[in-house]
Amino acid sequence: MLVRFNNQYLQKLFEDKQISGKPRYSADLILKFKKTVLKLQYAENVRELRKFKGLNFEALKGDLKGHYSVRVDIKYRLIIRVEEEIIITITDVIIIEDLLKHYE
Description:
Elements: E1 2-5, H1 8-14, H2 27-42, H3 46-49, E2 58-59, E3 68-71, E4 76-86, E5 90-101
Parallel strand pairs: 1-5
Antiparallel strand pairs: 2-3, 3-4, 4-5
């Protein structure tokens, strides 16, 4: 799947670019975040994400209606949007919005 970032900070983390200031997340969480994004990239479509029980892919409600979350670790969820893009074939596009603590 094609993965895009709507959050520059998370994009820099994923691409191993220099970030000034104190890190927002621990080194362990950053590694788990990168592994989760790689899983999203390697999935062929959104239906395949549902097969990964560890990701806990689910639709969100309330203020985040229209977004989905996937588990990074016990405390953190990656907030994403799913779009469809037509190039030659229909490809699902994941847009990474934020990395938040669960239930906060």
